[in-house]
Design goal:
mainly alpha; 77% helix; rod-shaped
Length: 175
């Protein structure tokens, strides 16, 4: 059974002969009632504080769960970003390697084309020199024939003959 301060204050004892001093008993009961009332208030205040602390603890646990979830999400996002950056870097490297290989191939093809062109030009130069020599020989023969027809009896004067030694450019042999 629970006793309240009001129960203590309203408690009446039977009076007997040679019993307790009523004033002392009433004063003592009043002090007990006052003490219990203070204890009840203190208990109620402590219960309120406990309830507030429980609510704060619940809020802190929720905040901790939210922070933990946020941290895990952030870590996952960071990992995803790292993976994406790594894939992008690898892709850029592969593209650069492919471009470099393509440029190298094009450069080699261009070098081969220039070399073929140089070879063709050399052949054309040799052909042009041979034609020029043939033309010069033809002109030399014509001059000799003309000279021999003009002076059939006279000995031909020594004419400067175009030979390989007197040509401005020596003949090139086919390579």
């Amino acid at each position: 059974m629970r006793i309240s301060p009001l129960d203590i204050q309203q408690m009446m004892f039977k009076v007997r002969l040679r019993g307790y001093d009523r004033r002392e008993v009433d004063q003592f009961l009043e002090e007990i009632a006052q003490t219990i009332e203070n204890l009840n208030r203190e208990n109620a205040a402590l219960r309120e504080k406990l309830a507030a602390a429980d609510m704060q603890l619940g809020d802190l646990r929720k905040a901790e769960a939210t922070l933990t979830h946020t941290l895990v999400s952030t870590q996952a996002l960071t990992d995803d970003l790292k993976q994406a950056a790594k894939r992008d870097a690898e892709l850029i490297m592969k593209e650069a390697e492919m471009k470099a290989a393509e440029l190298l191939r094009e450069g080699r093809e261009e070098v081969a084309a220039v070399q073929r062109e140089i070879s063709e030009l050399r052949k054309q130069r040799l052909l042009a020199l041979e034609r020029l020599r043939a033309t010069l020989r033809t002109f030399e023969r014509i001059l000799e024939i003309e000279a021999s027809e003009e002076e059939p009896a006279a000995q031909p004067e020594p004419t400067e003959r175009v030979t390989e030694a007197t040509m401005p450019y020596p003949p090139r042999r086919a390579e």
